């Protein structure tokens, strides 16, 4: 409605240019042994190593949105070494090899992204399939559905407190939803499933389900240190010594007291967080004692499993099996 | 639309009369110690016993839709003995006592239901909250949603085969859904939940989910002997030696072969039945290897747990706990 | 040093009178089948029941410091019924019987304690072998040994907060140290042992050991409802839904923040409380990660086990075994 | 009886020639580090790889009847590459090295077997110590001992159905009896042991024992894909999703129905197959409920263990221990 | 061969008289509710009890070779009380009742066995189906088969040492072979099975198998206190604190040293005893490391299980199931 | 007191010279990547290996008192090869590298220790922080505290028997206290802790505690083969087949009989040894049945854990975590 500004036009041009770049480059997940490639990737980490014969080479882990691949630059030079740095974008030319069933990239040429090439880091970073801001809005819509004013206020306050970090935090260091925005995506899908199941099991108190889902993992933000691309370098000191379940309980206790929430409501929410891993050996010393705590556990595990199944079956030929998947008790999944 | 027939009118009168009868009588689950009662119940089982002092008395288990209570007739007489028989309806007058926290009925007067009293056995039998015929119709509606014609035909054939028994079979001998129509009710709610979750996890193949839900427990009909009131006297010989999972697999294999179903489809459905208990120690020697098999397990366990939670919390005062519930790992549930 | 006051003299007289009373009465733990008794006991609980033949009788549980015995008044009368009430002292005359290896008291005569009889409830209540005030003083002496001023202040504040209740709270509802003052006694002995082991393992930080011991179970006061005689009627709502470990962690977090304790110190103390049960299935989702947390666990379990062993072997003949002790994995202990 | 035919004579000559060949070559299991060798082996699998320095070499797994060894051809050439192919026999000259306790063959020279060299693949393939045809005959002799005509017919029909494959199928992909004819050998020895134990425990029904042994593993033929040398490339789709136990049960059900076997007999045999792994976590959701099912389990496990023990102790010096054996819970076996 | 002596004739007469007595009396295992009986039984234990109404009665446990039944004498009298004593034979007249599925004998008349009635205690005592002396001879025959003179001497010495007790010791306090001569019977059948399996698995060293079987349980004689009727009153002090496995090891060590047995042989035999329960939680801290130790375990468990199965299925109707059997993990066995 | 002898003076000079040597060399545990070193170490083991490119090199494991490091000599020569031998001291010059987080030494120069360099093997060997003779004396002082003369004699006899070996035996092949004198050090600290706890739990019999501690692991001397530097090459044959617990029991039995100790005392001590690992899966088929056996277990586990914690936290920066420690269930320890 009305004319596009110069800025808009430029931005649009940039987007197009980027789309072209991306179009000509192969997704890491789709690389096949024997293929030659010429593409932009992000350096996740690297190391200068030596062969057993004492020759130096550079070992790099490259990522794009689709996945990760290990690469080698066998011809070491000081200039190449200087060029390689963490979280920088490079253009690489090389060949895909296979080593004991694992793909590896032999890099023949590497150069830094030129300033004129408009690809941004965020475009190569693995992230949730929905925009973070959109997900956060969806989650806030569910908060609006909470009828109890105290619970609604508590949830809103905690969301506001972690507002910025929520936009990029993953749901885990490794495994399911360990990408930018993963925590939001995981929570959003659980809210959606929870709402649906509430239509079948009508005796459930939806206030607790919505609040419980949003609060159950929120203290992963305190448990792990993530950069703004959703990459977790490590757990925090408090995360290792206590863990996000305990941290979440304290969060509810303290934030609840600030708004003088009814003690019963606070304790029930804390109990939901405490029991949502269900088994002591997975971190829950108490089993769910309310139906909402019980269902919270299942929403959580279903979303994690569906993530794992969908992810593992990607790119598998119909009628064949995946390799053994450690995360899923070494099952071989079947793609029908 | 048009006139009611005489038959309709009579039926309506009977219904009203029955409603009155029921209105004046206390539900077993609501009986309180100290109360005098005067009501119709169904005799589930009885025994003539002796006190340690050698005096004869009659020990009866009475049920209605809401539950079960043990009763005693301390004054034995030959006439009373003759009057008491299994699955007959009696009117009892007496007093509710409490014995180590368990309620017991001391019967002072007992008589048979008069032919003029129109209460029917089915009205006292615990059963699913939805009419069996209605549930069966709902289930058939889901069959209609199956797109693969072979799978649809297979499911239809098996449903037709067990048509009559499905109308009254419980889902278990004891525990969750162990009442008339329980098998249908359990399956129906799982179909409804499965459909909902399919809206979130869109990569799921709904044909397998609908078929898997309907077939997962259907051979409980072969595993247990139930009378037409949904009361299971015992497991069958084949039920004990093999179990409904194995029986269900054979059913799919054989009925599938009859319609020359594609081998892959048959095997996938058999695998879903095989893996739906998830853990070897609960009867599943294989874990789910397809996402639909995985979700089937969760649909099953969620429906069972929601049944148990709802049931256990019935009649509990808000703000208090239930006793330890053996079925739920001795948890005390909290009623908020 | 100086003259005794009149009050002192009277108090002394009372004490003597009481000693005489106690002298003439048998300790419950020493009652033997066949014996006639005539003694004061405390009514812990009672119930009016009926024999299978319908005759009313009164079923009473009597206690003294040494133990508990079940008693029956077979001849029911309204007056007797009125006389019997919880937590009252009665004088009973009767005979000790044995029923399947369990002792039982047949009461022939029962009457209320006369006002002139000076026996007090506290003298019949099972309690720790050291005076509560003395134990509290000992514990405070250990607080004085804490060198870190923040930790010392934190511990002092929490002790002050629960000052009164500490004087009578037991360490458990059942099992080890489940008597008046049990919590203090358990903590005191752990402090003493901890101090000793610190002399061997010199790299241990005694501040954390002393603080950890005092705080590890202090929130049992919030987990259970105890009367002033150390008898726990039930767990609290928060106790059931969260448990004393979680409650203790929150206590340290909140009280620590109040005095702006260094975050590291607060988290380490919380971790000690979190990990002191050692195994997830016993309530600790994290294992000890500091040597002080590790040793805390062993101080706790050693004190509990020594209590159980000492208690179980009381009154056992040298050269013989106890019955199977459920608490100790059904071991039969040997008395050398 | 009469003269040898020309054919017989030639065959005899061939055999002698082969015996000479074999005589001059070392068994793989007996190779020692430092030894030079010049011998025929079968190529089980191979791969062209690169050293970390980028040099190509050929990695080969060689087998003979006695075992398997990894070999390297460090000097890559196109001709050598062409010569190397799976399941072909080659003559290799080289040296045995040792690498972290594992033997390895450094190949200096390699050539294809000449047509004039009469060694056959089957002569290098690991296989059962008894001829397959002889074992099958022994098994059929046991079928003859079955008195119940229905059970005998059922077993005969199933044996006939898998006749050809039985001659070469192994009993497993890896581990015990994973060689040509292993399935027959395992079954035969179990029949022999079963017969013996039946002489001690006379109440056992030998019909079920003989039939149960023959049927217990027969569907490994459907579970795994084996070539005619008893080498299993993979499990089948149905094998992975259901497993040989479930497949065996269906086999009995269907083949039983074809001959209208008494339902009880069919179900008992199915139960034997279902329960023969004994523990749920090993694939048996039901434990044996008949003495014959119980004994079947022990016949199975004893034969597997005796195989493992005999195999592991081969070549061990008396008075010394084997390495840790993963298959046997990391035991070190002792050779007396 | 030659004339019978007077003594022989008398003995023969006694035997006949006894046979008559036994013929006219019902076996306890065959008693049915409602039946009147008049028979000799052995008093295993008794107690004078009171009804809840305070009336005295005598509670008796009666046994014969076939089993055990609880009986009541409701009419207490001093004379009856005097007549009743442990391990005495009485003649009882009464009626078989059923109480919650358990049979009970209501005794109307009871008298002591007259001296002229020749029934002996041993004739009513449950015992192995083979004469003890005959079993001992069989076992000694197996000792003769041991080729190693040191091992043979060791086994002979230990057998001689426990000669007398072996004739009546049961193999257990409860459970399998817990009757007179049970230890011999259990060992004898294991020897027979071991010999048979040695014919299949020819690499086994039969010396160790025969010696291992004989020694594996022999120190149950030191672990339990049994009277000469094979009734175990209790475990010994050393039995409780160490157990028959440890006791057996020490026995072999010490007796072996006395005859200067080769150290290796002694240690291997000790290892067999140590590992024969196979699992740590059943008392074996080491798993079998020789094939003979491995097979010893299976001989042991097979004989125990066959005993349990045979025993449990006794008297069960073909086509029906037993009740749940605790000893066999609550299985319901099926009688085909 | 008086003049130093010439011998003393020389010895003193040697000591000083050695101290200088040691002063100029880096402790292995303190080596940092990038550092150049020039120091004496002991060769623990070595191997001549080949790079994948076929070049020979020497792989050496070097130790000093502080720890162990892997080293490589890339330039192989026959002379170097001759120089390198196990348990010899060498002077090495080289550079510390890091390889996947593990330190490695690249050796540029290596030579044998000159005879004039007075460093002794024992000065480089990892060993307990207290002199063995001093520790043995401390232990004997505890024996003196045993009041029961029989128990004291037994302990003294066993100590005397293993006198020499005790001076250097480690407490384990790997893990806690696996260094020269480790067995003495472990026992000594347990005695000290036991004495302390006996001051709190006064009902404990200190005779059994002192004797139990000294005897609990003494047969590790029979279970493992250690050289005089406390390096265990392997377990003994009897150690593998029976283990030090069983060996210790036999030791007490036999040595006890020699001095005619009261049977009860011997059995109680054997029970303490048997039960001190507490759990069947760790080698104790019986759980402690006396308070002294119970406490013995805790003394043992506390000393092992304190060793592991102290050791693991050595050199860790305050405020950071260790890597995952396999021995401690993969915990990351925190250094406050």
Automatic annotation (TrEMBL), chains A, B, C, D, E, F:
This enzyme's EC code(s): 3.1.-.-
Entry keyword annotation includes Protein transport: no
Pfam families in the cross-refs: HD, tRNA_anti-codon
UniProt keyword list: Hydrolase
CDD domains the UniProt entry points to: HDc, YhaM_OBF_like
InterPro entries listed in its UniProt record: HD/PDEase_dom (IPR003607), HD_domain (IPR006674), NA-bd_OB-fold (IPR012340), NA-bd_OB_tRNA (IPR004365), YhaM_exoribonuc/phosphodiest (IPR050798)
Keyword rRNA-binding included in the entry's annotation: no
Protein known as: 3'-5' exoribonuclease
Species of provenance: Sedimentibacter acidaminivorans
């Amino acid at each position: 409605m009305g004319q596009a500004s110069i800025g808009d036009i430029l931005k649009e041009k940039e987007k197009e240019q980027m789309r072209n770049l991306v179009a000509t480059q192969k997704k890491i997940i789709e690389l096949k042994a024997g293929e030659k490639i010429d593409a932009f990737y992000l350096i996740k980490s690297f190391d200068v190593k030596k062969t057993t014969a004492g020759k130096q080479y550079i070992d790099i882990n490259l990522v794009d949105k689709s996945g990760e691949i290990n690469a080698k630059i066998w011809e070491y030079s000081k200039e190449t070494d200087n060029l390689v740095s963490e979280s920088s974008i490079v253009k690489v030319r090389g060949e895909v090899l296979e080593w004991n069933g694992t793909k590896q990239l032999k890099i023949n040429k590497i150069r830094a992204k030129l300033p004129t090439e408009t690809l941004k880091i965020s475009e190569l970073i693995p992230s949730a399939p929905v925009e973070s801001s959109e997900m956060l809005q969806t989650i806030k819509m569910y908060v609006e559905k909470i009828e109890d004013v105290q619970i609604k206020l508590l949830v809103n306050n905690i969301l506001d407190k972690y507002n910025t970090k929520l936009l990029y935090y993953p749901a885990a260091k490794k495994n399911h939803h360990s990408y930018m925005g993963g925590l939001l995506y995981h929570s959003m899908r659980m809210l959606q499933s929870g709402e649906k199941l509430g239509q079948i099991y009508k005796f459930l108190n939806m206030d607790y389900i919505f609040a419980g889902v949003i609060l159950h993992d929120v203290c992963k933000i305190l448990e792990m240190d993530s950069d703004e691309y959703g990459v977790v370098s490590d757990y925090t000191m408090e995360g290792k010594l206590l863990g996000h379940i305990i941290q979440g309980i304290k969060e509810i206790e303290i934030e609840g007291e600030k708004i003088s929430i009814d003690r019963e409501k606070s304790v029930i929410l804390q109990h939901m967080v405490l029991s949502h891993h269900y088994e002591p050996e997975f971190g829950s010393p108490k089993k769910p004692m309310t139906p909402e705590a019980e269902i919270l556990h299942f929403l959580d595990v279903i979303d994690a499993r569906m993530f794992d199944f969908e992810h593992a079956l990607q790119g598998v030929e119909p009628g064949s099996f995946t390799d053994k998947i450690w995360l899923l008790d070494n099952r071989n999944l079947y793609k029908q």
